[in-house]
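Entry: Universal stress protein
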Amino acid sequence: MYDNILYPTDGSEAAESVMDHVRTLSETYDATIHILYVVTPDSGDASLTLDKDEQGNWRTGMFKRQSEPVSTSGMAKGSVDVNEVLRAEGEGYTQAIADELEDDGCETVCVTREGKPDGEIITYADENDINMIAMGTHGRSGVEHAFLGSVTEKVVRKSATPVLTIRQDN
């Protein structure tokens, strides 16, 4: 019934609360767990970068992509693009989860993508024969929910793939 389970994660406590459930589903159905981390790229024609100053402190800066970064904050050439850092962190994070699940005998696939999280989750599920998406939710309501929105809610509304939602333990 469940051969491929998608476990999107952003490193939040809500996402962490799903791991025991996907482990149990994987063990029960001998399913492969696809661990997905989505980097949300910056928008517009500016790129946020990180760089260390002369004292070794990290600083940020916004630069036009069409030209070489011009530093007004003491940042030197060779700045690191934040999206590259986030992608590397996502790859490391998904691999750490995979290692833990594999120690319990689960088969895993690690994936890092860039884009809108809800769109990337749905697209990945459609492209990879995913039978279930398992996601955490914060359980927000009222103004907080309306202001922050919910990737999980968007996936539930838009996905043709069944979505299991697990509320974060408070």
